Amino acid sequence: MQLTNYDKLMDLLLNATDIVALTGAGISTSAGISDFRSPKGIYADPSIDGERVFDINVFKEDPTIFGRFFAKLYPQIKDAQPTKAHKMLKKLEEMGKLRSIVTQNIDGLHTKAGSGNIIEVHGHVREYVCVNSMHHRLNTADFTGAQIASGEAVICKECQGLMKPDVIFFGEHVKDLEKALTEVQRADLVLVMGTSLTVYPVAGLPEYCKDGTKLVILNAMPTKFDDIADLVLRDDLDTIAEKLGLVDK
Ligand code: CNA
To answer: Does 48 lie in the same domain as 15?
Structure first.
């Protein structure tokens, strides 16, 4: 009898003991949060120049460019709930299979799903941070919808610096990169989920797998690591979670 890709995936998951998931925006699209590079993603809107919106120098010159973008994105994130794929990772952790999640996402949905060891390499939107002093912080939940919708600059009350959500812009250092690298090097299976693997340095992490580590890519569109992966499934992530029976229906 021929094994299906789902049989192969289940075998790989069940035979692993140290899975590290590397997740991106695609794991959250079914929660109503747009990704960047899908055909209907945020970058499909020609009025949005992603390179400029997330450029720290552009932000310092004109924070309203990012502010107007965030005014559209934040309402999608604010009340979003974890998807079946997020819950599948929580389940794999409960089964003693998953050691950590390295996520590029800023939406906090792995935390909402109850996962434990999460490395948010691109930060999160739970807090605003002052670009002058990283110690000056505000809870995003304390802002009114109207304040965020205005897209106006947020000024630090303590030092008058500009404040921005605690997410990484181009020109800033990724958070906890060493920790993420160590996790990938300790993994016996790296499970890539919902990322185009185009944003460095995170996109390069699969290259650091030790010999013998399995690489599985679950993503709707092709990625540059497909050729070296042990298994590639180009299906919808929630469908995968359901078909594996790793999430309650
Ligand atoms: P991306 O470049 O937009 O890639 C997303 C990938 O997911 C694409 O290749 C899609 O084909 C795939 N995909 C989308 N939906 C599904 C699905 N249901 N099932 C399977 N595959 C799917 O996003 P990356 O994460 O690779 O890029 C990194 C950026 C995106 C980081 O800086 C993030 O902060 C940023 N981002 C995050 C969010 C979020 O936090 N939810 C939303 C939008 C962008």
So the answer is: no
Q: What tokens were used for 247?
A: 């999430």
For residues 92 and 215, state if they share a domain: yes
Q: What is the pLDDT of residues 106-163, one digit of tens each?
A: 999 999 999 999 999 999 999 999 999 888 999 999 988 899 999 999 999 999 999 9
Task: State the distance from the centre of ligand 1 to the C-alpha of 160, rounded, in angstroms.
Answer: 34
Query: Quick one: which atom of ligand 1 is closest to the CA of 41?
Result: 3
Catalytic residue among 86, 110, 122, 124: 122
For the chain, what is the domain count? 2
DSSP 143: S
CB 169 within 8 A of CB 56: yes
Structure confidence by residue, pLDDT tens digits, 40-74: 888 888 888 878 999 999 999 999 999 999 999 99
pTM score, whole prediction:
0.96
Structural domain for 88, as ranges? 1-33+82-122+174-249
> What distance in Å separates the CA atoms of residue 53 and residue 55, rounded to the nearest whole number?
6
Q: Are residues 161 and 245 in the same domain?
A: no
153 and 234 co-located in one domain: no
Among 35, 72, 88, 232, the mutation site with the greatest number of ligand 1 atoms within 8 A of its Cβ is: 35
Helix (H, G, I), strand (E, B) or coil at 100: strand
